[in-house]
Amino acid sequence: MKILDFLQKENIPFKRIGLYKEAFTHSSYANESNAHIPDYERLEFMGDAVLQLFVSEFIFALHPEYKEGQLTQLRSKLVREESLARFSEELHLGELLYLGVGEEKSGGRHRESVLANIYESFIGALYLDCGKEQVIRILEKTIFKHVNEVNEFDDITDYKTKLQELVQSDDRKTVSYHVKSSTGPANAPEFVIEVILDDMILGTGKGTSKKRAEQHAAKDALMKMAKKAS
Fold first, then answer.
1. Does 190 count as an annotated binding residue?
2. Can you give the pTM of this predicted structure?
Protein backbone atom coordinates (compact mmCIF):
# COMPACT_ATOMS: atom_id res chain seq x y z
CA MET A 1 0.00 0.00 0.00
CA LYS A 2 1.35 3.39 -0.96
CA ILE A 3 1.31 6.36 1.39
CA LEU A 4 -1.00 8.34 -0.87
CA ASP A 5 -3.46 5.44 -1.00
CA PHE A 6 -3.36 5.14 2.79
CA LEU A 7 -4.03 8.86 3.35
CA GLN A 8 -6.94 8.81 0.93
CA LYS A 9 -8.33 5.60 2.48
CA GLU A 10 -8.25 7.23 5.92
CA ASN A 11 -9.80 10.45 4.55
CA ILE A 12 -6.89 12.53 5.79
CA PRO A 13 -6.93 16.04 4.25
CA PHE A 14 -3.15 16.14 3.86
CA LYS A 15 -1.31 19.17 2.56
CA ARG A 16 2.35 18.13 2.90
CA ILE A 17 2.80 14.55 1.77
CA GLY A 18 6.53 14.92 2.31
CA LEU A 19 5.90 14.88 6.06
CA TYR A 20 4.32 11.43 5.82
CA LYS A 21 7.14 10.10 3.65
CA GLU A 22 9.54 11.25 6.37
CA ALA A 23 7.34 9.60 9.01
CA PHE A 24 7.76 6.22 7.32
CA THR A 25 11.44 6.47 6.41
CA HIS A 26 13.61 4.20 8.56
CA SER A 27 17.18 5.26 9.28
CA SER A 28 18.47 2.24 7.33
CA TYR A 29 16.80 3.52 4.16
CA ALA A 30 18.00 7.08 4.75
CA ASN A 31 21.57 5.84 5.27
CA GLU A 32 21.55 3.74 2.10
CA SER A 33 20.05 6.48 -0.05
CA ASN A 34 22.40 8.67 -2.06
CA ALA A 35 20.19 11.67 -1.32
CA HIS A 36 20.28 13.28 2.11
CA ILE A 37 16.77 12.43 3.27
CA PRO A 38 15.51 12.62 6.85
CA ASP A 39 14.32 9.57 8.77
CA TYR A 40 11.35 9.40 11.15
CA GLU A 41 13.17 10.13 14.42
CA ARG A 42 12.29 13.83 14.70
CA LEU A 43 8.62 13.16 13.94
CA GLU A 44 8.70 10.29 16.42
CA PHE A 45 9.77 12.81 19.07
CA MET A 46 6.86 15.07 18.14
CA GLY A 47 4.37 12.22 18.05
CA ASP A 48 5.40 11.01 21.48
CA ALA A 49 4.64 14.44 22.96
CA VAL A 50 1.31 14.67 21.13
CA LEU A 51 0.25 11.23 22.36
CA GLN A 52 1.17 12.02 25.95
CA LEU A 53 -1.04 15.14 25.87
CA PHE A 54 -4.07 13.86 23.97
CA VAL A 55 -4.21 10.48 25.68
CA SER A 56 -3.90 12.26 29.04
CA GLU A 57 -6.79 14.56 28.12
CA PHE A 58 -8.95 11.62 27.07
CA ILE A 59 -8.45 9.41 30.12
CA PHE A 60 -8.64 12.42 32.48
CA ALA A 61 -12.15 13.15 31.19
CA LEU A 62 -13.11 9.47 30.94
CA HIS A 63 -12.17 8.58 34.50
CA PRO A 64 -12.90 11.48 36.89
CA GLU A 65 -12.71 8.98 39.74
CA TYR A 66 -9.08 8.01 39.01
CA LYS A 67 -6.23 9.39 41.10
CA GLU A 68 -2.92 10.51 39.61
CA GLY A 69 -1.25 7.13 39.98
CA GLN A 70 -4.12 5.32 38.26
CA LEU A 71 -4.13 7.80 35.37
CA THR A 72 -0.37 7.49 34.99
CA GLN A 73 -0.55 3.71 34.92
CA LEU A 74 -3.36 3.63 32.35
CA ARG A 75 -1.62 6.13 30.08
CA SER A 76 1.61 4.18 30.33
CA LYS A 77 -0.12 0.97 29.25
CA LEU A 78 -1.73 2.70 26.28
CA VAL A 79 1.32 4.50 24.89
CA ARG A 80 4.13 2.06 25.62
CA GLU A 81 5.95 0.16 22.88
CA GLU A 82 3.96 -3.07 22.96
CA SER A 83 0.62 -1.27 22.75
CA LEU A 84 1.66 1.19 20.05
CA ALA A 85 2.95 -1.68 17.92
CA ARG A 86 -0.51 -3.27 18.10
CA PHE A 87 -2.20 -0.02 17.08
CA SER A 88 0.30 0.38 14.25
CA GLU A 89 -0.63 -3.07 12.97
CA GLU A 90 -4.33 -2.15 13.07
CA LEU A 91 -3.59 0.67 10.62
CA HIS A 92 -1.18 -1.53 8.58
CA LEU A 93 1.52 1.11 8.95
CA GLY A 94 4.30 -1.43 8.47
CA GLU A 95 3.31 -1.72 4.82
CA LEU A 96 4.23 1.93 4.30
CA LEU A 97 7.80 1.71 5.59
CA TYR A 98 10.83 2.66 3.55
CA LEU A 99 13.50 0.21 4.74
CA GLY A 100 17.10 -0.49 3.88
CA VAL A 101 17.94 -3.87 2.34
CA GLY A 102 19.42 -5.34 5.51
CA GLU A 103 16.59 -4.13 7.72
CA GLU A 104 14.04 -5.57 5.30
CA LYS A 105 15.73 -8.97 5.27
CA SER A 106 15.99 -9.05 9.08
CA GLY A 107 12.25 -8.53 9.52
CA GLY A 108 12.28 -4.84 10.40
CA ARG A 109 8.87 -4.29 8.81
CA HIS A 110 7.32 -6.44 11.54
CA ARG A 111 9.62 -5.53 14.45
CA GLU A 112 7.69 -4.31 17.48
CA SER A 113 9.99 -1.38 18.24
CA VAL A 114 9.84 -0.13 14.63
CA LEU A 115 6.05 -0.44 14.45
CA ALA A 116 5.71 1.55 17.68
CA ASN A 117 8.11 4.21 16.39
CA ILE A 118 6.22 4.76 13.14
CA TYR A 119 2.91 5.02 14.96
CA GLU A 120 4.43 7.93 16.89
CA SER A 121 6.06 9.47 13.82
CA PHE A 122 2.80 9.20 11.86
CA ILE A 123 0.93 10.95 14.68
CA GLY A 124 3.63 13.62 14.73
CA ALA A 125 3.32 14.21 10.98
CA LEU A 126 -0.48 14.23 11.16
CA TYR A 127 -0.47 16.79 13.95
CA LEU A 128 1.93 19.12 12.14
CA ASP A 129 0.04 18.81 8.85
CA CYS A 130 -3.61 18.69 9.92
CA GLY A 131 -3.84 19.60 13.60
CA LYS A 132 -5.59 18.13 16.63
CA GLU A 133 -8.93 17.18 15.04
CA GLN A 134 -7.43 14.67 12.61
CA VAL A 135 -5.14 13.24 15.28
CA ILE A 136 -8.08 12.65 17.61
CA ARG A 137 -9.95 10.90 14.80
CA ILE A 138 -7.08 8.44 14.34
CA LEU A 139 -6.72 7.97 18.10
CA GLU A 140 -10.43 7.12 18.29
CA LYS A 141 -9.84 4.35 15.73
CA THR A 142 -6.90 2.91 17.67
CA ILE A 143 -5.92 3.90 21.20
CA PHE A 144 -9.19 5.28 22.56
CA LYS A 145 -11.30 2.28 21.58
CA HIS A 146 -8.96 0.00 23.55
CA VAL A 147 -8.98 1.95 26.82
CA ASN A 148 -11.40 -0.41 28.54
CA GLU A 149 -9.69 -3.56 27.32
CA VAL A 150 -6.03 -2.59 27.65
CA ASN A 151 -5.52 -5.07 30.49
CA GLU A 152 -6.78 -7.92 28.30
CA PHE A 153 -3.78 -7.67 25.97
CA ASP A 154 -1.39 -6.41 28.60
CA ASP A 155 0.98 -9.34 28.86
CA ILE A 156 4.06 -7.41 29.95
CA THR A 157 4.40 -5.82 33.36
CA ASP A 158 4.91 -2.06 33.40
CA TYR A 159 7.94 -1.98 35.69
CA LYS A 160 8.56 1.77 35.20
CA THR A 161 5.19 2.66 36.68
CA LYS A 162 5.61 0.18 39.54
CA LEU A 163 9.00 1.66 40.38
CA GLN A 164 7.73 5.24 40.25
CA GLU A 165 4.78 4.40 42.50
CA LEU A 166 7.14 2.76 45.01
CA VAL A 167 9.48 5.75 44.98
CA GLN A 168 6.63 8.25 45.39
CA SER A 169 5.16 6.27 48.30
CA ASP A 170 8.44 6.82 50.12
CA ASP A 171 8.26 10.62 49.59
CA ARG A 172 11.36 10.58 47.44
CA LYS A 173 12.20 12.28 44.17
CA THR A 174 11.27 11.14 40.68
CA VAL A 175 13.58 8.58 39.15
CA SER A 176 15.34 9.35 35.88
CA TYR A 177 16.67 7.19 33.06
CA HIS A 178 20.03 7.75 31.38
CA VAL A 179 21.56 6.03 28.35
CA LYS A 180 24.84 4.48 29.46
CA SER A 181 25.74 3.17 26.02
CA SER A 182 24.35 2.48 22.56
CA THR A 183 25.99 -0.14 20.37
CA GLY A 184 25.33 -1.88 17.07
CA PRO A 185 24.22 -0.57 13.66
CA ALA A 186 21.38 1.92 13.26
CA ASN A 187 19.01 -0.81 12.11
CA ALA A 188 19.76 -3.11 15.08
CA PRO A 189 20.90 -1.06 18.08
CA GLU A 190 21.24 -2.22 21.68
CA PHE A 191 20.79 0.32 24.44
CA VAL A 192 22.07 0.08 28.00
CA ILE A 193 20.11 2.34 30.33
CA GLU A 194 20.53 3.16 34.02
CA VAL A 195 17.69 4.20 36.31
CA ILE A 196 18.89 6.80 38.83
CA LEU A 197 17.54 8.31 42.03
CA ASP A 198 19.44 11.01 43.95
CA ASP A 199 22.67 10.26 42.03
CA MET A 200 22.37 6.57 42.96
CA ILE A 201 22.07 3.90 40.25
CA LEU A 202 19.11 1.71 41.20
CA GLY A 203 19.26 -0.66 38.23
CA THR A 204 20.50 -1.28 34.71
CA GLY A 205 18.75 -2.74 31.68
CA LYS A 206 19.41 -3.63 28.05
CA GLY A 207 17.04 -3.53 25.08
CA THR A 208 16.66 -3.06 21.35
CA SER A 209 14.86 0.24 22.04
CA LYS A 210 15.23 2.86 24.73
CA LYS A 211 11.72 2.16 26.02
CA ARG A 212 12.37 -1.56 26.38
CA ALA A 213 15.75 -0.96 28.05
CA GLU A 214 14.08 1.43 30.52
CA GLN A 215 11.55 -1.25 31.45
CA HIS A 216 14.35 -3.74 32.03
CA ALA A 217 16.27 -1.21 34.14
CA ALA A 218 13.18 -0.57 36.26
CA LYS A 219 12.67 -4.32 36.70
CA ASP A 220 16.29 -4.70 37.78
CA ALA A 221 15.84 -1.87 40.31
CA LEU A 222 12.67 -3.42 41.75
CA MET A 223 14.34 -6.83 42.14
CA LYS A 224 17.34 -5.29 43.94
CA MET A 225 15.09 -3.24 46.23
CA ALA A 226 13.01 -6.32 47.07
CA LYS A 227 16.13 -8.34 47.83
CA LYS A 228 17.47 -5.59 50.07
CA ALA A 229 14.16 -5.37 51.95
CA SER A 230 13.97 -9.12 52.59
1. no
2. 0.69
Residues 6 or more apart in contact with residue 206 via CB below 8 angstroms: 190, 191, 192, 193, 213, 216
CA–centroid distance for 208 within its chain: 13
The span from the CA of 94 to the CA of 119, in Å, is: 9
The rounded distance, in Å, linking the Cα atoms of 200 and 190 is 23
Q: At 218, is the secondary structure helix, strand, or coil? A: helix
Catalytic positions are 48, 120
Where residue 92 falls (left for φ over 0; alpha for ψ -120 to 50; beta otherwise) is: left
133 is in an annotated binding site: no
Q: What is the pLDDT of residues 120-164, one digit of tens each?
A: 999 999 999 999 999 999 999 999 998 887 765 544 567 888 888
CB 183 within 8 A of CB 160: no
